């Protein structure tokens, strides 16, 4: 199970089995999607399968998640999302009404995200050989600017912006799954992120890299990027917004919010001079209302290459490791 | 289960649940993939999930099938396959060696088909919530000619070419699954079809429509196209090549080869004047060595719109209906 958790074992599975077989310059980008050239155009292409349990949870369901998740991966490539495919693997006996609700939710999400579902596929597997419904979506986006937004472009001195508070999606799923009741319901942050990202690009912010925070949370995203870019990253723990409900639930359950999954948050690497203007642009959008700078990139020494440091409230600096094992299985 | 069989119930599921929600001009094409415009380029985009059981069978496995299946859908849009995504849903406990074999098979298949796997995703589900391995692939192809190859362009008088003998894939799976032993092993016809299709287009054959034969076999493909194009189709049963092993197995098991699944065969609708030249081109490729003309398209009366007729060996004409219910579940 931990091989699917988005942490160290997922990274190992990719580096041991998939990367050697499918070795090419596109996968070597280690990006949320592939940056491609098709004829005269630059495109982004991304895929994700969604196996989240339960299928419906506060603030979201598998349908809107399957749309927003892939839309967000395209946006993280600096691409304007255009077209989406949808592949359904349905377990025999899955209720038609439930399928109908999911499909309606996908329809609404696609409209909200400005993407069109253009092609699809349906397979049915025997009872006991699936889990209700799995959905794969793949997306195509167009890159309308001249920049390459990718981990390799992260520079020493870059400021790291975080688009909002972390941990909502993971704790929302957790509370439903475990039947926990808090004073207020924790809603998933599941949301489309292309509009604020396109605004940053259109207004000329020099975006070096983008990454949405999903499985493995903020810490895994930072660790992946520090490693791919061969840089050192330092963040200020007190600068990372965590809402009260998520903080409380994490304390009770023994989770670190930096490792908890999100579905509507991203980090952006930009030159320090653009920080104020970029935050001003992001804060225009409600999904980025709590956007803030959380850290920066350092030129590493040989021993600190790929390292992520976090400075705590009392000023102590510790190493923020990648998620080991699994925290919450089937979170997306 | 029958909702996934590729026959009448699959068509109902699409028309009742998916089509009303995702109503747009792309899905309305009812094609193997979507024909899109991205900037200055014309693209095809297609997706398929593969849930075949068993994962390995004579002549093919889920890995090469997942590559060839989507490559073929792109080719049927008249597109040159360029890029592929791969999404893996792995059941907890699935052997790493088996995953390795499948991935190696995908690598070889992608090389053979001239497509590059550029982006991927891996999810792991609990034991008992999957069935070893499901794979989704989505593909992007470029359309380099000015024609639109689609069901709507089928014309009365068009000749229907079939690229080879039918029924191998379905009977191969069936014989493995049921532990049947025939004198010779029936191998799946699973193969990439883009090269012969590109040759037809490059040599100026006026191709009106293409369709690969998968779930539901030749009969479902003909019925879908007759319906979408609102035409009448007539084929000559004796002209449809069926190899001796498949014919024998079908007789023993009570299957009609016209309904049995294929993974490396297609039909092409072309003007009658191009027939001889098109067959000459196809026969250059071993995968199309048995290509032949099997029928033609008629302008229908009100009552014969969407009808497929088949003329038997003794000259009797009967209606070839779409597959009802399921014949072989999880064939792809």
Keywords:
homodimer, 332 residues, alpha+beta, five-stranded mixed β-sheet, 8 helices, 25% strand
Explain what this protein looks like in three dimensions.
The structure is a homodimer of 332-residue chains. Helices cover 29% and strands 25% of the residues of chain A. The longest helix of chain A has 18 residues, at 96-113. The mean pLDDT of chain A is 93. In chain A, helix 2 packs parallel to helix 3 and helix 2 packs parallel to helix 5 (194-202). Chain A has 332 residues and is of the alpha+beta class. Chain A contains eight helices and 14 strands. Chain A has helices spanning 8-21, 62-76, 96-113, 168-177, 194-202, 217-229, 244-253, 275-282; strands at residues 34-38, 41-50, 56-57, 60-61, 80-91, 116-125, 133-142, 159-162, 209-212, 232-236, 266-270, 292-298, 308-311, 317-319. In chain A, strands 9-11-8-12-10-13-14 form a seven-stranded mixed sheet. At the A-B interface, helix 1, strand 1, strand 2, strand 5 and helix 3 of A face helix 1, strand 1, strand 2, strand 5 and helix 3 of B.
Task: Describe what is shown at a glance.
Helices cover 29% and strands 25% of the residues of chain A. The first copy, chain A, has 332 residues and is an alpha+beta fold. The longest helix of chain A has 18 residues, at 96-113.
